[in-house]
Design brief:
The radius of gyration is 20 Å and the shape is globular. The longest helix is centred in the middle third of the chain and has 23 residues. With 385 residues, the chain is of the alpha/beta class.
């Protein structure tokens, strides 16, 4: 057994109604004036009033920054940091999907270190701890509440880049399944497949450990067993609980084992064309799984079996391929299958996309099979129609 470590958020609280305890958790962290980074859609749906009621009841003054949106531009991190410093905020609360939480984590370290977001992109560029931060997911997808990464769009460069540092780990991940009940079917599906992608990639990563594998495999089970119900019967609280727990486990898996080539290939789609992260991963996942079969056959058999496929007495390659078919069936049943052609992405851009994907090096290093530029172009072509 190889030597391994396991890290994550300092504290995790999970349960229906747990969001009501936000003020108490802020007090534990000695935060008296938080900046609340809120997803713009949530703010428009009246969630800001819910936050205000909690804060007013606890007599906590707070500052609202409700500009978070999917695929956030890096400029928003600097803008939010300026607001936090101007208003003398002493902590950060991120509420929403992965984009809102990524933005909140970045603001927390920027406000604590007084740098610019562009200076901290890459691995371990953040010089020190930031402000205390609490992450509250309202989707079951990214796992950002327990990861050390914040990803942004750099519009001028037409690319996505990540800020990666242990200082981005939240002091608290506060997970309340009730907050996911109103998520519409399509984002429920897209974020759910995103979480499944994290679980499958981290399980098959060359950096997987015995501990991360437990998290990743259980995430695959929870998501594959419950995503269809969550999509088609969004008020089913048991399914929502299982999905949020699965997303949490997948986030812990990816934070420790890393993701693979799916993310390398999906990043350029977001950076150049603004394709949402969950949708880009959904398109890439089955094709990358097929490519990786020979490098992790036993693990793909595990995935097939835990997703309900019968693998008894089958040749190992055929059993492993059932994992791909199970994922494709789940995507189809959730109604989100699409192609690069339908997204209007021209085939003549595939060489450029592949070159950009090659620069997303850390996931490629985790991939169980070495992937060349030509392999990437072929995978984009397979995803075209």
């Amino acid at each position: 057994m190889k030597t391994f470590s396991f890290t994550g958020a300092k504290k995790i609280v999970f349960g229906n109604g747990s969001f009501a305890g936000l003020a108490e958790h802020l007090a534990e962290l000695k935060v008296s004036r938080p900046l609340v980074v809120l997803d713009g859609n949530l703010a428009g749906a009246g969630f800001g009033a819910k936050v205000s009621a909690l804060m007013e009841k606890a007599k906590i003054g707070f500052v609202l920054f409700d500009k978070a949106a999917p695929e956030p531009p890096i400029e928003l991190a600097n803008e939010g940091t300026k607001l936090a410093l101007t208003k003398k905020c002493d902590g950060i609360v991120g509420i929403g999907g992965g984009s809102a939480m990524d933005l909140a984590k970045a603001i927390a370290v920027l406000a604590g270190n007084r740098g610019k977001a562009e200076d901290y992109l890459g691995l371990n560029k953040v010089p020190g701890p930031g402000l205390p931060k609490i992450m509250v997911p309202t989707t079951s997808g990214t796992g950002s509440e327990v990861t050390f990464t914040a990803v942004f769009i750099r519009k001028k460069l037409k690319k996505k880049e990540g800020m990666n540092s242990p200082y981005l780990y939240p002091e608290l991940a506060l997970l309340d399944p009730e907050l996911t009940l109103t998520l519409p079917p399509h984002p429920t599906a897209a974020t759910g497949i995103d979480a499944l992608c994290h679980a499958i990639e981290s399980y098959t990563s060359v950096n997987a450990s015995p501990m991360s594998e437990v998290m990743s495999l259980e995430a695959i089970r929870l998501i594959s067993d419950n995503l269809r119900t969550a999509v088609h019967d969004g008020t089913n609280i048991e399914a929502r609980e299982a999905m949020l727990l699965g997303s949490l486990y997948a986030g812990l898996g990816l934070a420790n084992a890393g993701v693979t080539a799916v993310h390398s290939l999906s990043y350029p789609l977001g950076g150049k064309y603004g394709v949402s992260h969950g949708l880009a991963n959904t398109i890439m996942l089955p094709r990358v799984m097929t490519f990786n079969l020979s490098g992790a056959r036993e693990k793909f058999v595990d995935i097939a079996e835990i997703m309900g496929e019968i693998v008894d007495d089958m040749p190992i390659r055929e059993a492993a391929y059932l994992a791909v078919e199970a994922v494709e069936d789940l995507i189809e049943d959730c109604g989100i299958f699409t192609t690069l052609e339908e997204l209007g992405i021209p085939q003549e851009d595939f060489d450029e996309l592949a070159k950009a994907a090659m620069t997303v090096a850390r996931p490629l290093a985790n991939n169980p099979c070495k992937m060349t530029l030509e392999d990437m172009v072929e995978i984009y072509q397979e995803c075209y129609s």
